[in-house]
Design brief:
heterodimer; A: mainly alpha; Amino acid/polyamine transporter I; 18 helices; globular; B: mainly alpha; 3 helices; 74% helix
Chain lengths: 468, 53
């Protein structure tokens, strides 16, 4: 260790710093994005059927798919240009300004930490449900999921995302195997879509039910924007981030369609809208123990893959805040051996454990969704400002998204609909969260910002923005 | 069996937390704060991007 310290001293003296390790490729970016999201197919999306019926779940699947395709395209363009840890935080800092950046970083940390908590609770509950043992509680399994993946993240990003690639691929494979096992080409053999979704029950609450369903349809894709947090650790940001993110959203659009088709064809909408395990229950309905076993493991693996990705992303956002002195610089330490933001990873561990043991799953999910939608709303404004300040041809972009500003407008409109849907179901939480962000913004503006070295935070070697 | 597995889960969690706490302490006491917090955003971009589009 002393030798390592000496070597590091020498490199620091020579101008090198202890920075995050650039070792990731497009497959790791895919594993990070899809890994965070895929759990939403195994639970979460189906609550949209409770809000508006099975057909509403399908319609919102496509509309929200459009929202997230816009997110993926916009993110790919901006992140391939602002390739820094913190993702949307770094984007906001360079394009909008410090106060927006501080808020976006908090959206990120809240969204990912609450999602990690939800994942751990889901994994624990699934194992307890499978075991069926009297007196067995989920606490030990929640602790195991969070601690094991915090440890993995502490030890290095390459192994973390290699593991995520494998477990995400296995979980995805379980959906594909279920789909082909129920003979989707032959309605009536196993699947009963015609009987379960009829003109009478397709939209039981009418069009307001479709609007209300948006809130949970978010779960089909929530978290794909997390790919941007790997920006400082990929070997080629301009290539890996767009490839990984776009491949990720295509993967998820396919998974969402397969999931809806199988579940809506095997489970009545009244049950589909309340169960915590739509795919696992669909597998049980086939009567095949092999499929039931596969989808049990698919549910557990998707939950732990999501927790793993969330730990990675929340820590990068927190680390970036420390590095720019928006929070104490203590959080910006990088482990000299593992090259990870180890203090940020460890700082968020007890917070996640506390929420996992205290919070209710629905509350954790709602806070995660709210923070996510706030972030998407920012992204729609951010891309318009980015194109206005640095038009095409003024700076190098790894990817240029087509049809601008249609994706930005589409994203903004769909975010507004989703806010309304959240207000219908969780109005008090929405108001409480907005008040929280206003209070911390006031604290940042009048107190914390005096510690920030204002010139140091803008690191991109870009020309002056147009109009400045 | 599942009760035993849950005890095992607690034990593994405790061991890993103890290991991370030990490594954290060892790292912080071996390296200076200046070294540990020396990471800066955008260094590679500053070298590789010339912005002559």
């Amino acid at each position: 260790m002393a030798q390592a310290a000496q070597a590091t001293t020498q490199t620091t003296t020579n101008g090198s710093r202890i920075s995050l390790l650039r070792v990731l490729g497009p497959a790791h970016v895919w594993a990070l994005g899809v890994g965070i999201v895929l759990v939403g197919e195994f639970t979460g999306w189906n609550f949209s059927a409770d809000k508006g019926g099975a057909l509403a779940a399908l319609m919102t699947c496509w509309f929200v798919g459009l929202l997230y395709t816009s997110v993926a395209m916009i993110d790919s363009e901006v992140t391939s240009t602002v390739a820094a840890a913190g993702g949307q935080y770094a984007q906001a800092k360079h394009i909008v300004g410090p106060l927006m950046a501080f808020n976006v970083a908090l959206f990120l940390v809240f969204a990912y930490t609450m999602l990690e908590v939800s994942d751990a609770i889901l994994a624990g509950d699934t194992i307890v449900a499978y075991a069926g043992t009297e007196g067995l509680t989920h606490d030990a399994f929640i602790a195991l999921v969070i601690v094991v993946f915090v440890w993995l993240n502490y030890r290095g990003v390459l192994m973390t995302l290699n593991v995520n690639f494998v477990i995400t691929a296995l979980a995805y494979l379980s959906i594909v195997v279920l789909f082909f096992s129920v003979q989707p080409w032959s309605q009536g053999a196993v699947l009963k879509l015609n009987e379960l979704v009829t003109p009478q029950n397709a939209l039981p609450y009418g069009w307001i039910g479709v609007i209300a369903a948006f809130q949970f349809a978010i779960w089909y894709y929530l978290g794909i924007e997390g790919t941007t947090q790997a920006a400082e650790e990929v070997r080629s940001p301009a290539r890996a981030l767009p490839y990984g993110t776009m491949a990720g959203i295509i993967t998820l659009l396919i998974a969402a369609a397969l999931t809806w088709y199988v579940c809506a064809s095997l489970l009545p909408w009244e049950y589909l809208g309340v169960t915590y395990y739509p795919l696992w229950d669909a597998a049980k309905m086939t009567g095949s123990p092999v499929l039931e076993f596969m989808l049990f493991w698919g549910t557990v693996l998707s939950a732990v893959a999501s927790a793993n990705g969330c730990i990675n992303d929340a820590a990068r956002a927190w680390f970036s805040l420390g590095r720019d002195r928006y929070l104490p610089t203590w959080f910006s330490a990088v482990h000299p051996k593992y090259r990870t933001p180890y203090r940020s990873i460890l700082f968020l561990l007890p917070i996640a454990l506390a929420f996992a043991f205290i919070a209710d799953l629905n509350q954790a999910i709602t806070f995660s969704i709210l923070s996510g939608v706030l972030q998407y709303t920012f992204m729609s404004i951010n891309i318009v400002m980015f194109r206005n300040k640095w038009p095409l041809g003024t700076i190098r972009r790894g990817y240029t998204h087509p049809f601008h500003p249609i994706p930005a407008i589409c994203l903004f409109v769909l975010c507004a609909i989703t806010f309304f849907a959240i207000f219908l179901g969780f109005g008090s939480q929405l108001i409480a969260m907005v008040i929280f962000y206003i209070i911390v913004s006031v604290w940042f503006h009048f107190y914390r910002y005096r510690y920030v070295r204002r010139g140091d935070q803008f690191t991109m070697p870009w020309p002056k923005p147009r109009g400045y | 069996m599942w009760i035993t597995i849950s005890y095992l889960a607690w034990a593994i969690s405790a061991i890993l937390v103890a290991w991370m706490a030990y490594d954290w302490f060892k790292t912080d006491s071996t390296y200076s704060e200046e070294q540990l917090t020396s990471s800066r955003e955008g260094e590679i971009e500053a070298v590789s991007e010339k912005h002559k589009v």
